[in-house]
Amino acid sequence: MSGKPYQVLLVEDDQGDAGLVRIAMRRGRHDCMLHHVKNGMEALAFLRRIGPHREAPRPGLILLDLNLPGRSGHEILDEIKTDPTLRAIPVVVLSTSEAERDVLRAYQLGANSFVTKPMDVEAITTAVHGIQDYWFGLVQLPR
Fold first, then answer.
1. Which residues of 51-76 are buried (b: 16+ CB within 10 A; e: fewer)?
2. What is the pLDDT of residues 26-79, one digit of tens each?
3. pLDDT in tens, 94-107
4. Contact by Cβ (8 Å): 59, 89
5. Half-sphere exposure of 85 (CA within 13 A, CB side)
6. What is the pLDDT of residue 120?
7. Where would I find the H helices in the chain?
8. Percent over 90 (pLDDT), the chain
9. Which of 4, 74, 125, 126 lies at a 20 to 30 A Cα distance from 25?
10. Which among 72, 141, 76 has a CA at the least distance from the CA of 110?
């Protein structure tokens, strides 16, 4: 990516979880700029560059929690994946849910992967580093 950091949008309402993801991203092998929004409507405003997000960069990856205030992560995923200008952005669902119905619905709506969010610091760091290594070290992303 020619020396530029990878742009990552984290959609997460829990400040503690967001902080853990931020720390893990900083400790990873890939240079990432993490942008954090707390709900789905703010995520859509960021992605569409509306209001205070007019200058927002286009993320190369979205990390999306399912349990969000207001509109659910599934609803936001559906909106992203049905919008022709946004659907090419990979979305990794990062949720505490292990429910088969949540996993199935996320994939039906176009999620690129589903990762159950671990509950301890070391495990979430390992998970985030795995996400980074896969998306920024192995696969070819659209530019």
1. eebeebeebbbbbbbbebeeebbbeb
2. 999 999 999 999 999 999 999 999 999 999 999 999 999 999 999 999 999 999
3. 999 999 999 999 99
4. yes
5. 5
6. 85
7. 15-27, 40-48, 73-82, 100-108, 121-137
8. 90
9. 74
10. 76
- Residue among 21, 101, 97, 27 at smallest CA distance from 61: 21
Residue 2 confidence (pLDDT): 52
If one counts the domains in the chain, the total is 1
pTM over 0.85: yes
Residue 1 lies in a domain: no
Residue 16 in any domain: the answer is yes
Give the domain range for residue 84: 6-137
Q: Domain containing 37 — which CATH number?
A: 3.40.50.2300
Distance CA(119)–CA(140), nearest Å, equals 30
The mean pLDDT of the chain is: 94
What count of residues does the chain have?
143
If one counts every other C-beta atom within 10 angstroms of the C-beta of residue 131, the result is 23
